[in-house]
Amino acid sequence: MLRKTLLLSLLLSFSSLFFPRVTDAHVLKSDGPISAVVHIDPNDDPIVGEAAYFFFDFNDKESKFTPQNCSCLVKISEDGREIFTTRLGSDPSLDASSFSYTFPEKGIYKITVVGNSTNAVSFQPFTLEYDLRVDRESETKKNLNQNFFFRNLQYLVLVAIGTAFLLALFLEKRRENV
Fold it and tell me: What is the pLDDT of residue 24?
């Protein structure tokens, strides 16, 4: 009986490795009456080396907040080190609650939005933090990495020929000395 239970437990444990975990890409973060959901293009899954476009859907329970009356600062950090800062809406090609950023490498990043009111109808200052895993590479980069062997085949062939040549020289010298 103990063997069957142990075997069943092991099978269930290993089977969990083969099924993808369900995750929710749209996480609502709140600070006081202000809350926001972040959407990221492409497909809420940024690609290393390609521009990611961030869009924030804000909500204010007191109806005082608008992106236009917010001095909203966005910070991106990795391992506690700030690597990018911008104001929401600083890019004229995007709307007031958006920005773009290109992630240089795979990793876990923290996106922080800090907002302060810029007019008399003030809302409460807020800070919203989102954790983001970036682990998708562009198809071009994937293909380059997968074709490492073929890209370096000429060097491998040269090394093999050189090794064979040196081995032949070594054996020839050895025969002469015998």
Answer: 47
* 76 contact partners, CB below 8 Å, separation of at least 6: 82, 83, 84, 85, 101, 109, 110, 111, 112
- What's this model's pTM, rounded to 2 decimal places? 0.64
Burial 4-21 (b: 16+ CB within 10 A, else e): eeeeeeeeeeeeeeeeee
- Tens of pLDDT, residues 56-112: 999 999 999 988 889 999 999 999 999 999 999 877 777 779 999 999 999 999 999
CATH of domain 20-136: 2.60.40.1930
Q: CA-CA distance, 36 to 97, in Å (whole number)?
A: 10
d(CA 63, CA 34): 9
Confidence of residue 23 (pLDDT cuts 50, 70, 90): very low
Residue 25 per-residue DSSP state: S
Residue 42: cis peptide before it, omega within 30 degrees of 0: yes
Q: What pLDDT does residue 41 have?
A: 92
Handedness of CA 129, 130, 133, 136 (dihedral sign): negative
Other Cβ atoms within 10 Å of 55 Cβ, number: 16
Distance CA 64, CA 58 (A): 11
Q: β-strand 51-60 against 81-87: which pairing, if any?
A: unpaired
